[in-house]
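sorry for the late reply, my laptop died twice this morning and i had to redo everyting from scratch. anyway the thing you sent over, i finally got around to it. pasting the sequence first so we're on the same page, its 92 residues, then the predicted structure underneath. double check i copied it right bc i was rushing
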Amino acid sequence: MSRLVKILALCAALAMPISTFAGNPPKAATPAPAPVPQERHPEIHAAMDKLREAREILQQKAANDFGGHKKQAVESIDKALEHLNEALQYDK
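ok and here's the structure:
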């Protein structure tokens, strides 16, 4: 009987790997998603957005010219945006 137990154990051991692979085939690894390129100089882009917003508020909502200072402020904002664009172009 001990021989029968050994034969059954051997058969079970040999059958286990076959039954394991007979089921579902292994899944192929899914490739990782491509990294999203990070915006260079996000602080400068944020500042530029705020400057454009300020210019729009001055041009659209400011009630009067404030003795010519509103016009000068808008011109200064435009000049600042120009400088920031040049800075971004310089760093390419």
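The mean pLDDT is 80.
thats about all i looked at so far, will dig more tmrw
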